[in-house]
């Protein structure tokens, strides 16, 4: 499998071609995170259907610069994205898979050391409808289940700037009712919201930002029975907390919330992270 160093030249070029200015920060610094956590689950927000491209490009560049070039990523994207003909070759190149992997496949891939980092986009196809300047509802919380089962921390990778890479199209009212009757949950959601966010890379992104921090609140569950329906409920509750934290970081990056300073809050989050990790390690 390809390592970050194999992707970095291409993705750095992509980042330069799609952004005029790019700013990255992590708390603690990324080199420390990579040293302390040899395997992680990385949770990105997406913003728009194509928002994953500058996000993955930036993190690959920064990880390589911080000494993580040998790390081997596996990317999980919503099944819907594998069906987009124009993007399929690029998505296969980045995800290192021709299809969306099953949960047990991922466990096996990481248990045998084939991969070191799982990259996920929990909002999934929900970014095709709704507001562009927010963290959408998560389509799945299974990434929390995976991180808990494997004992991995979750690296929150929140970015802002690609919101203009979508063209919102209002659906005529006469289309909404018949669309609600289709078997596709995504189409039903779009019909209910009345808007479709079309992928539309409208030129260079003037200012692209990313903030990363570590989350390990889920590791407390490793001391408890974690399987079946109970595991799903715990994962969903933890995913809701993760989404709230990502929303705080996102708002702070845009200056929307003066009390939600990413750096300031990250200190508290990191302290909780260390405490949770120490408790798990003390078992």
Characterization of the model:
- It is a single chain.
- The protein is of the alpha/beta class.
- It has one domain: Glycerol-3-phosphate (1)-acyltransferase (3-Layer(aba) Sandwich).
- 44% of the residues lie in helices and 16% in strands.
- The protein contains ten helices and eight strands.
- The chain has helices spanning 4-18, 30-36, 52-65, 88-95, 103-111, 142-150, 173-180, 185-193, 228-253, 262-281; strands at residues 22-27, 40-44, 73-76, 117-120, 154-160, 166-170, 195-199, 208-215.
- The strands form two sheets. A six-stranded mixed β-sheet has the order 1-8-5-2-4-3, with helices on both faces. A two-stranded antiparallel ribbon has the order 6-7.
- α1 packs across α3 and α7 packs antiparallel against α8 (185-193).
- 42% of the residues are buried.
- Residues 264-283 have low confidence and may be disordered.
């Amino acid at each position: 499998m390809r390592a970050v160093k194999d992707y970095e030249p291409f993705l750095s070029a992509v980042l330069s071609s799609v952004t005029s200015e790019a700013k990255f920060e992590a708390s603690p610094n990324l080199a420390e995170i990579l040293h302390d956590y040899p395997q992680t689950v990385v949770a990105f927000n997406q913003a728009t259907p194509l928002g994953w491209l500058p996000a993955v490009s930036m993190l690959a560049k920064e990880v390589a610069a911080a000494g993580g070039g040998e790390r081997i990523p596996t990317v999980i994207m919503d099944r819907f994205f594998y069906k987009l003909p124009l993007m399929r070759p690029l998505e296969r190149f980045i995800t290192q898979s021709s299809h969306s992997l099953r949960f047990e496949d991922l466990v096996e891939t990481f248990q045998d050391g084939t991969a070191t980092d799982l990259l996920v986009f929990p909002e999934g196809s929900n970014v095709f409808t709704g507001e562009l300047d927010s963290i959408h509802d998560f389509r799945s919380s299974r990434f929390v289940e995976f991180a808990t089962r494997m004992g991995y921390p979750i690296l929150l990778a929140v970015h802002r700037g690609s919101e203009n890479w979508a063209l919102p199209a209002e659906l005529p009212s006469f289309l909404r009712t018949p669309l609600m009757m289709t078997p596709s949950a995504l189409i039903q959601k779009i019909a209910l919201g009345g808007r479709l966010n079309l992928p539309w890379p409208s030129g260079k992104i003037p200012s692209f930002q990313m903030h990363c921090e570590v989350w390990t609140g889920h590791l407390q569950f490793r001391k408890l029975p974690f399987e079946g329906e109970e595991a799903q409920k715990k994962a969903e509750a933890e995913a809701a907390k993760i989404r709230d934290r990502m929303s705080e970081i996102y708002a702070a990056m845009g200056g929307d919330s003066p009390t939600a300073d990413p750096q300031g809050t990250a200190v508290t989050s990191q302290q909780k992270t260390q405490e949770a990790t120490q408790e798990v390690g003390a078992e």
